[in-house]
Specification:
The protein has 19 helices and 19 strands. It is an alpha/beta fold. The chain folds into two domains: about 325 residues, 3-Layer(aba) Sandwich (Rossmann fold); about 150 residues, Isoleucyl-tRNA Synthetase, Domain 1. Helix 2 packs across helix 3. The longest helix has 30 residues. The radius of gyration is 26 Å and the shape is elongated.
């Protein structure tokens, strides 16, 4: 049994969760669920980033204290993830005492190793990004990401000697070709490093809402240098419950492409400076687009897409939890940008879920009811359907391991298609009750059992219901994939239930 430590970015609490956050979190959840199914010991971390000027401004704008605001907004993320069936093992808040302790220990190690010094910073700053930009990197004085005017700032800061790690980072990328995936994003980070690194400011004196600098009481750590360390806080860095040696070699960050620089340049350099190996792998995902524009809170504030209309709980209330999870995983290959639309959800729902999976389960249950007295027969050990099932299992397992839920689901739906074709070929609804129809139905039930196992990381609730209707005890993920993903395990001799449609079709007027 291996270990698998998967993290999402911690989400900023200046506003409510939206479907862009859900996209990342559902992908991370599906991979955590896959690795549990594969038999690995899993730790899945998400949480909220609660320091910085943006949070203080949001709290003031709502007439509450920063503590009240962070409590309220962090709770909304928990509620959203509960609504989506997110199986996180730890939910971290950067205002927790355990995080303060780990941040101070980690950055003190860098300071003691000689990579932090004091200087005056003067430059352009974006409050929305919590990031500095050079005049060359700005767009006519505006933030290249948010389009808002950059603010000129000058203050005394502590700096991290990022420039000292340029060669080491290039060597690390060369020696670890799978460090950042997909390759295009690895190339982007490598090119940024190759272009030359400058030292970066890591503290503030102009704000007090942050983790205090242990060697200088007048400063707090700048939000990114506090936030990145959450991945180590959750495994006990610098504390009595330290499990870094157990989990960090098996760590995987799932991040959006807009934060590559922080996670793929600054963060590995910080780890090196503290005497720690970098995270083992960073998987970068693209953006969800609406009409070609990135989903963001800023767009909503500026009169663009209203994110409150596409909050996770709104979607799950309208379409159900598992259909939304399926759409987010299946529609877009992880790493690419994808278009988000209600029309796209409805098309996937009606085609993939209602017509394909739902119809297959219903028609098999109906024929078992009419031809087999409602009792599911056992499959044949060497059915003509078995090779397609074995191929789908191998392809799906490989895709999950490669951080490609879309391909895993394509392989799973390939098995659904093969099973539907198998039924069309044999037309069991036309057969007389007896051994022949029982053989066909046993094979079909076994294929559905395997579909439930393969799809369970994506749609745990629906797959559990399919499992129950097949007359099976336990759960699709109740055994490891090596044990459950084998042709021929459907026991036969159990009652099969047709039940209500798993996915009632959505008509356009709805």
């Amino acid at each position: 049994m291996g270990r698998f430590y998967i993290t999402t970015p911690i989400y900023y609490v200046n506003d409510a969760p939206h479907v862009g956050h859900a996209y990342c979190t559902v992908n991370a959840d599906s991979m955590a669920r896959w690795h549990r199914l594969a038999g690995d010991e899993v730790k899945f971390l998400t949480g909220t980033d609660e320091h910085g000027q943006k949070v203080a401004d949001a709290a003031a704008g709502h007439g509450v204290s920063t503590h009240e605001w962070t409590d309220q907004t962090s709770a909304r993320f928990r509620e959203a993830w509960d609504a989506l069936g997110i199986s996180y093992d730890d939910f971290i808040r950067t205002t927790e005492p355990r995080h303060y302790e780990s941040v101070q220990k980690f950055l003190a190690a860098i300071y003691e190793n000689g990579y932090i010094y004091k200087d005056i910073y003067k430059g352009l700053y974006c409050v929305s990004c919590e990031d500095y930009f050079t005049a060359e990197a700005s767009e006519d004085g505006n933030c290249p990401i948010h389009g808002r005017p950059l603010v000129e700032m000058e203050e005394e800061n502590w700096f991290f000697k990022l420039s000292a790690f340029e060669d080491r980072l290039l060597e690390y990328y060369g020696a670890h070709p799978g460090f950042v995936t997909p390759e295009t994003k690895s190339n982007e980070a490598y090119s940024f490093i190759k272009g030359g690194l400058r030292d970066i400011s890591i503290t503030r004196t102009s704000i007090s809402w942050g983790v205090p600098v242990p060697w200088d009481e007048n400063h707090v750590f700048y939000v990114w240098y506090d936030a990145l360390i959450n991945y180590l806080t959750a495994i006990g860095y610098g504390r009595d419950d330290d499990e870094v040696a157990d989990w960090w070699p098996h760590s995987h960050h799932l991040i959006g492409k807009e934060i590559i620089r922080f996670h793929c340049v600054w963060w590995p350099a910080m780890c090196m400076a503290a005497g720690l190996e970098p995270v083992s792998h960073v998987q970068v995902h693209g953006w969800l687009l609406v009409g070609g524009q990135k989903l963001s809170k800023t767009m909503a504030a500026e009169g663009g897409v209203r994110l409150t209309d596409i909050a996770p709980v709104v979607l799950t209330n309208e379409f159900g939890v598992d259909p939304i999870r399926y759409y987010l995983l299946r529609e877009t290959s992880l790493g690419n940008d994808g278009e988000f639309s209600l029309e796209g959800i409805i098309q996937r729902y009606n085609t993939d879920l209602a017509n394909n999976l739902g119809n297959l389960v219903a028609r098999v249950a109906a024929v078992v009811g009419s031809k087999c007295a409602g009792i599911g027969p056992a499959p044949r050990s060497e059915s003509t359907l078995a090779p397609a099932a074995r191929a789908a299992m191998a392809e799906a397992a490989d895709a999950w391991e490669r951080f490609n839920p879309q391909a895993a689901l394509e392989a799973t739906w390939g098995l659904i298609g093969s099973t539907n074709a198998y039924l069309e070929q044999h037309a069991p609804w036309k057969m007389e009750p007896g051994p022949d129809v029982e053989a066909v139905m046993g094979d079909a039930l076994e294929a559905i059992r395997l579909v439930a196992v393969l799809a369970s990381p994506a749609m745990p609730g629906v797959c559990q219901e399919i499992w129950r209707r097949l007359g099976l005890e336990g759960a699709p993920d109740g055994r490891t994939f090596a044990e459950a993903g084998v042709w021929g395990l459907y026991p036969g001799g159990v009652a099969v239930e047709k039940g209500e449609p798993l996915f009632p079709r959505i008509v356009s007027e709805q």
